[in-house]
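Checklist before submission:
- one chain only
- standard amino acids only
- sequence pasted in full

Submission:
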Amino acid sequence: DLFENLPEFKTRLDFFLREKPKLAALVSSWIQPGYEKRRLFSLLRGHRMKSVLHRMLDSNEFLSEFGIRSLSKYYEKHPYAMKINGDTLSIKYTPGESDTRMFGGNSNWRGPIWFPINYLIVESLKKFDYYYGGDFSIEYPTGSGNFMTMDMIAKELSLRCMKIFMRDDQGNRPVYGTQRKFQEDPHFKDYILFYEYFHGDNGRGLGASHQTGWTALVAEMIHKYSKPNKANRNESSPLFRS
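Returned file contents:
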């Protein structure tokens, strides 16, 4: 048993549960075994996680055709504003390049798709699934009436991210948008650029064009899910189109 091998940690954990019951009640139940007696250390209990995923997997909010947006699309028509020292400051969904010079002006975390966020979400969903098992399902996408395990959702989100670099039905890669040279020229079209971030609505590559430091995480997604088999094949997914 894990706790038996970590006696000092167990002592500290028991102290926290005993002395801070109100705080302990807000996070996952560390002493409650999950699937195959596994334990979960998380800020989210199951019902709270479902509330978070309800919004995250909503195509009208965070779920894009190409991954998870960094800000809800809801704020495109409903910007959030507040007054500080007489100045009105606001934030709205901006899916492409930044429309402000704040924070350097060359990056935008207010709408586009970023691979660090998506990779962490995918890995977290897989870990939650490891604890809860196959009986714990989430509606995906929100409002569709279709329910999947979190492991299945992790795969589907990975496929959406991979779709950025794949040719669509017209033979175009979303990453290159309307750049015909990169879409059609045989000397360029099959050499993929790893952009810094991607348009939240159409997947077009934005920012630095050689950001392999984190965008190359897509390679691990491809490695895991590119070969169809009985465990992960989804005929409706764009990955398996001829």
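Reviewer check: The chain has two domains: 1-31, 44-71+112-240.
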